[in-house]
């Protein structure tokens, strides 16, 4: 019997694997939250499949998303990144990654972990939406507006409300699987 998946991923094996194994699964680990945050910021203006296809290149180029290393990147490392055809070579996004690593660590210092901070917006529990069709899910919400505004106040870049809502979906802060999707009740 074929499993029903959310319509956005059907037909591409990489997309389907991401959907089946990662998308919407609650993430409480700071390292994973940082990786998703950076990947989402690079996605701004692009499709997620573009980022997903370059994900391993991003991991290698950005020292496996080690935010402590990234916070200390110098001009030579930035030049290397901007010449790496395996990633999105956008100077503003590369520089934002460095400033976001610094801001990320400040949040950790203040809250004990980034996870405590970000999950505090939903009282530590995923919001379970009930969409019949993935197209009914919003691009942003008043909550993603609030988180975006707070992150910007804390020095984060490329964290508009749409980017933040995508991050919330990816990291399981919201469950936007279609109600008929086999993952809806699993995550």
Automatic annotation (TrEMBL):
GO terms for biological process: base-excision repair. Its EC number is 3.2.2.20. It holds the Pfam family Adenine_glyco. GO terms for molecular function: DNA-3-methyladenine glycosylase activity; metal ion binding. It catalyses: Hydrolysis of alkylated DNA, releasing 3-methyladenine. Zn(2+) binds at residues 6, 19, 177, 181. It is an enzyme of class 3 (hydrolase). Keywords: DNA damage, DNA repair, Hydrolase, Metal-binding, Zinc. Transmembrane segments: none annotated. It comes from the Bacteria. Hydrolysis of the deoxyribose N-glycosidic bond to excise 3-methyladenine from the damaged DNA polymer formed by alkylation lesions. This is DNA-3-methyladenine glycosylase I. It comes from Winogradskyella wandonensis.
